[in-house]
Amino acid sequence: MQHKMPTLFIAHGSPMNAIQRNAFTDAIGGLGRTLPRPSAVLVISAHWRTTGTRVLNAAWPETIHDFSGFPEELFRVRYPAPGSPATANRIVKLLEQFGVKDDPEWGLDHGTWSVLRHIYPGADIPTVQLSLNRRLDLAGHLALAQMLAPLRDEGVLILGSGNITHNLGEVDFNEDAKPVLWAEQFDQRMALAIEHRDVDFLLRRSDPDWAALWRRALPTSEHYIPFLYAFGASDESDLISFPYQGIQNGTLSMRCVQFGT
Known about the structure:
CATH topology: Protocatechuate 4,5-dioxygenase, Chain B
Order of helices and strands: EHEEHHEHEHEHHHHEEEE
Distance between the termini: 15 Å
Structural class: alpha/beta
Number of domains: 1
CATH architecture: 3-Layer(aba) Sandwich
Oligomer: single chain
Largest sheet: 6 strands, mixed
């Protein structure tokens, strides 16, 4: 019988994590050695936003360097994982009511390859991406994510890539920057909501006691939404664990979440 795959939310932070070795990259690198080997990986990255939902359907996706101002070494990185048209077609069928469409033009953006090159450095797991539909609110993304749950029984690892806090205006690009209090507070409150599967809090940016901190931690939601895919495809019987927790660059929560084993 096929092992039911866990779902993951992996923080990605600065693109530099792709080529650096630190406590965070060591932790996510360990996941590739402990997780059951998937038949394919479905990544929901903060960096592919579309009008309508799209699924990457390419036999050999390109490595996309969707950033600027970083060292040349980062632009030389390639992650030559194969695609999985069969998985893409399965996703189109599962999400039929959402009108998802194939996209053969997109590739693997840095939200995907910057973490996968640590988890699966051999780039030998077929990889598919699903876009973030700008037209959906948080509840809409969660509902879509729930429709992806059957993939777990088919050997597909569902992985959201983003950050639980993401305010570029308050990032300290000094690598030794100390965590700021508000980022730690929001990260810890999120951890509590995750552990208790508190859907009400996880979907309510307007929570009266936390609205100001929501706005500061996540001025926009695109880095948070990938978490909802890992959460939405999980179920109440899944063990919840945090493969890594910590703050980089003063304000970036690097908390990673695993649902299931």
